[in-house]
Amino acid sequence: MYFIVIFLLSLVFFSEVIMLSSSNNQVYICSGLSILPLILAVYFTKKIFSYIVFALSIISAVIIFVLGIENYLALFLGLCFTATFIIALENKKRFTKNKINFNNEIKKKKKAIICCKEDNNKSEEHISEVSQQSQEIENLYEITKRMSAYLRFEDIFRILCSELKNTFEFDDCRLIHINRIKGEVHLEEVYDIPIESRIKDAKSYDYKIIQIIYEKSLSLSLPQAQKDAEEYGLILPLKVESLLAIPIYIDEYIRSVVIVENMNLESFEKFSIVIGQFGLEMRKVRLYELVEKLAITDGLTGLLLKRHFLISFEKEMERLVTNKIEISVLMLDIDHFKKFNDRFGHLVGDGVLIKISDIIRNNTREIDLICRYGGEEFCLALPETSKEGAYAVAERIREQIERENFMAEGKFTRASISIGVATCPDDSNEILDLIDKADQALYKAKASGRNNTCIFDNKRQIG
Fold first, then answer.
1. End-to-end CA distance of the chain
2. Cβ 427 vs Cβ 439: under 8 Å
């Protein structure tokens, strides 16, 4: 394209020279054509073409001047000025257009910068939010880690109270241990979390809340407590604006419920996570207590095993001997228990052992130590009990067992026990010797016809 334009311009230039040499009348035409290169220069953007066009125009002007055509020089200059004005206008248009384009580009870049700043701010907010969430997760992990270091309810409850008070804002929060007996819910223990202590009674509406949780088997969330409570027929004090109740499951049963009042709604989810972690620790504590209980108690009767009984007895003996306080021992044995097992079977025999264990437990105090000493043999340590007092306890147990009906093969049958009694310090200050003295009295009771109580005496056996 550019080569064709150059060719045409060259043709115009040489035509002009020819016409100048041949005819004066053609000066008008050649003068007009001489300005054509300047006008065409407007449409070229590359410098080399502008220079070529400009050079051709200058050469044309020199030729006209050398040939002495002064009258037409003024016309040529006028046309040159006209062409220059046209070029200036065209350049101004180009400049204005370029300026507009430049301003548009500037606006686009500014807009892009603003968008980048907004994106950067959003990114910073997101990073801050992620960092906050990460910190919260780390805090939850630390709570779990701290609770995991303990195996007692009192310890993990203390940590829970501390973390809840430091992390959340609420008006009231309580932990309620519950039990369900024959389909009815019973509130067993209530712990006030702000004061980190067990309290006597739950609130009047707690029982209804726990019933609702049992029916739903889910947490009870009342962000607008007064309005939301109507759906469940629950009446709350006017001061309760929000309420969250979370069940804690152990062995697939609801064993505890945490109730919190007037807590920020945004904290509901995080609070639920903390209580969920506490529930996991509660399950671990319960498992530990179960294992510990199995290690020290008889699996059938729930009474102490012989080894743990002797350890506990020794500690109690040291205390009582130091303070010169009496302690008595009872040795009990079920009469003809082997024949009972042979006749009715071991399942019936186990039932008899369980029932007799319950009778013994119901006729003793919490401070008394009760042990399944052997197969059908039991041993009791009665702190702060004289020989006469121990004899009275033994007779109360024996008489109740004598009156008790035991089910065997669809029929009621009877059982009896023989009991031996020995007392410290009258009979001995040594544990094993004292138990041996009570055992001697037991054999005396059996030799005397069974179903009776004998007290050990160095001179004679009292029956």
1. 141
2. no
β-partners of residue 383 are 327
What are the backbone dihedrals phi and psi of residue 450, each rounded to the nearest 5 degrees, phi first? Answer: 65, 175
Q: Are 451 and 417 in contact (CB under 8 A)?
A: yes
Pairing of strands 327-334, 369-372: unpaired
Query: What is the mean pLDDT of the segment spanning 390-403?
Result: 94
Rounded to whole angstroms, how far apart are CA atoms 441 and 447?
10
Q: Which residues pair with 421 in a beta bridge?
A: 330, 455
The torsion angles phi and psi of 221, rounded to 5 degrees, stand at -115, 120
Name every residue whose Cβ is closer than 8 Å to that of residue 447 and which is 6 or more positions away in sequence: none
- Produce one character per residue of 199-233: b if its CB has 16 or more CB atoms within 10 Å, e if not: eeebbebbebbbebbeeeeebbbbeebbebbeeee
Cβ-in-10-Å burial (0-12, 13-18, 19+) of 87 comes to middle
**Single-letter amino acid, residue 353:** L
Contacts of residue 46, defined as CB under 8 A and 6 or more positions apart, other chains included, come to: 2
Residue appearing with tokens 């019933």: 211
Domains along the chain with CATH numbers:
1-149 (no CATH), 153-294 (3.30.450.40), 306-455 (3.30.70.270)
Q: How far apart are CA 32 and CA 61, in angstroms?
A: 11
- Sheet strands (E) in 50-196: 172-181, 184-192
**Residue with the larger pLDDT of the pair 150 and 49:** 150
Those residues whose C-beta lies under 8 Å from the C-beta of residue 187, and which sit 6 or more positions away, are 176, 177, 178, 202, 206, 207, 210
- Read off the amino acid at residue 399: E
pLDDT digits (tens, 9 = 90+) for 182-212: 778 888 899 999 888 888 889 999 999 999 9
Measure the CA–CA gap between 431 and 37, rounded to whole angstroms: 134
For the chain, percent of residues with pLDDT exceeding 90: 33
- Report residue 424 as tokens: 């410290």
Beta bridge partners of 172: 261
pLDDT in tens, 66-109: 555 444 444 454 455 455 545 555 666 676 777 788 788 888 88
Cα within 13 Å of Cα(7), Cβ side: 4
Query: pLDDT of 220-262, one tens digit each?
Result: 999 999 999 988 999 999 999 999 999 998 878 889 999 999 9
